[in-house]
Specification:
Elements: E1 12-13, H1 21-24, E2 54-55, E3 64-66, E4 69-84, E5 87-94, E6 103-106, E7 110-117, E8 125-128, E9 152-158, E10 163-169, H2 173-178, E11 183-188, E12 199-208, E13 227-230, E14 241-244, E15 248-255, E16 261-265, E17 270-275, E18 278-279, E19 287-288, E20 290-293, E21 298-304, E22 309-315, H3 338-347, E23 379-382, E24 385-389, E25 393-399, H4 438-442, E26 446-447, E27 453-454
Parallel strand pairs: 1-9, 2-12, 4-7, 6-11, 12-15, 14-25
Antiparallel strand pairs: 3-4, 4-5, 7-9, 8-10, 10-11, 12-13, 15-21, 16-20, 16-22, 17-18, 17-19, 17-21, 22-25, 23-24, 26-27
């Protein structure tokens, strides 16, 4: 549950925008959330109405109304984030978490966002994709002075267009973003019935380089990341997405890693309905089952959950659905290791077995000793055994009887009789082959580019 605390700001600096003395008389409280479970927000109690998003393994930042202005308070600070049960990371984030809380508002809202810096160095906040005055853009040294340690700056602007956006530092960016500083920024349409969906999910893609046994990410890494996360969580620590059969679903995905991610949904066809540049007109959309989210991009996909079941939802780069990967591990497929295992046991009595001779699938069902604060490469179990997944993977669960507005995990799907792939115990038909099926080969016609047929 979200806890709240009052932050008593000592000095408020007017570096990012000017507001009245009355507005600065009392900085709004800065709520903090320490847990990593998905927190479904309530409908807004004041201001323009909107349909809240559900941040996967995250939460939305409360605000207060002050003379018609919607006021938020972000605190940039060191945080501890549970990546999954058994592993935590010492990151930098906002209001107790990485990513920070989702900011939600409505098109046309006047916003005032206080940012207090409790990091060990200066910072600034860029509002990625939002159209606002140049002095509020948040690029330290260019559009504003950096926010010094211990100071509070204020940003004030109008949310001029609806869509899916992000916030992140534009100060010592390589370090601060590698440490986890980022958050979602959702601007809802003025009319709450415009672009309405039944379930609206959102999360950010982030990658970290954390050695087994350590807790702090390497910040100079450019390509060799080993922890691939959705909202700084990895499977099986990523919550499931749920829907009732027939509901319209939107999933918003933002990418602040250093590579692209082809996000793939099983069992359904979707359309890309929005980017961080705005909403895509209906006439410009096309059906997809995978959309590539490049560095610094947002994608909002929409579809009807018309197929009951437990459907995989994941990045289609296979090494992004694994945890704690090593980059110098040799390929031992086909290498006989039994003699090696005997020799290793003489040196290390606790050595169990050599692995990798027939692939890595065996790792999904083995509980081997691990270094401190790390995770198996492949983990998680389903109703039929090990899932052999980690990293950027979760399950989209569609049920006929899922109550509307209920986000609780309904458990594993009960398949109708005769609808599960299973072992065949009857006679196996012969497989035709190019070498053995001479009669079939006589009937094959090959058309060459010139149009001539060869038999």
């Amino acid at each position: 549950m979200t806890s709240r605390r009052h932050f008593l700001a000592g000095a408020v600096a007017l570096g990012a925008g000017l507001v009245s003395r009355a507005a600065l008389a009392a900085v709004p409280e800065a709520p903090v959330a320490a847990g990593a479970l998905t927190q479904v927000p309530d409908a807004p109690k004041d201001g323009r109405p909107y349909n809240p998003v559900v941040t996967l393994n995250g939460w939305s930042l409360p605000w207060r109304m002050n003379r018609g202005v919607k006021e938020f308070h972000l605190v940039a600070e060191p945080v501890v984030r549970e990546i999954a049960p058994g592993m935590t990371a010492r990151l930098w984030g906002y209001n107790g978490q990485s990513p920070g809380p989702t900011i939600e508002c409505v098109e046309g809202d006047r916003l005032r966002i206080f940012v207090t810096n409790k990091l060990p160095e200066h910072t600034a906040v860029h509002w990625h994709g939002l159209l606002l005055p140049n002095g509020m853009d948040g690029v330290g040294g260019l559009t504003q002075a950096q926010i010094p340690v211990g100071k509070t700056f204020v940003y004030e602007f109008e949310a001029t267009k609806s869509g899916t956006f992000m916030y992140h530092p534009h100060a010592d960016e390589m370090v601060q973003m590698a440490m986890g500083m980022m958050g979602l920024f959702i601007v809802h349409p003025k009319n709450a019935d415009t672009r309405r969906v039944d379930r609206d999910y959102a999360f950010l893609l982030a990658a970290y380089d954390i050695d087994p046994g350590s807790y702090v990410p390497r910040v100079n890494t450019m390509t060799e990341f080993n922890i691939w996360t959705w909202n700084s969580r990895v499977f099986p620590g990523i919550d499931t997405l749920v829907a009732r059969t027939g509901e319209k679903v939107r999933i918003r995905v933002g990418n602040l890693t250093m590579t692209n991610h082809p996000i793939h949904l099983h069992g359904h066809v979707f359309e890309v309905a929005g980017t961080d540049g705005g909403w895509v007109p209906k006439s410009a959309r096309w059906p997809e089952v995978t959309t590539d989210v490049a560095v610094g991009q947002m994608r909002a996909i929409e579809f009807v959950a018309d197929a009951p079941g437990d459907w995989a939802f994941h990045c289609h780069k296979s090494h992004h659905t694994m945890n704690a990967m090593g980059h110098a591990v040799p390929n031992l497929i086909g290498v006989e290791q039994r003699d090696l295992a005997k020799k290793m046991r003489k040196l290390l009595p606790g050595y169990t077995m050599a692995m990798g001779s027939t692939g890595m699938a065996e790792m999904g069902d083995m509980q081997m000793p691990l270094p401190e604060n790390t995770l198996p490469m492949m983990t998680g179990r389903g109703p039929f055994g090990p899932l052999e997944m980690g990293g950027m993977f979760t399950v989209f669960k569609v049920r006929d009887d899922q109550p509307r507005g209920d986000y609780r995990d309904p458990g594993w799907y009960t398949h109708p009789a005769g609808t599960v792939a299973s072992e065949w115990t009857g006679e196996v038909p012969e497989a035709a082959s190019a070498a053995g099926a001479s009669d079939a080969a006589d009937t094959v016609q090959v058309v060459k580019p010139g149009g001539h047929e060869h038999h």
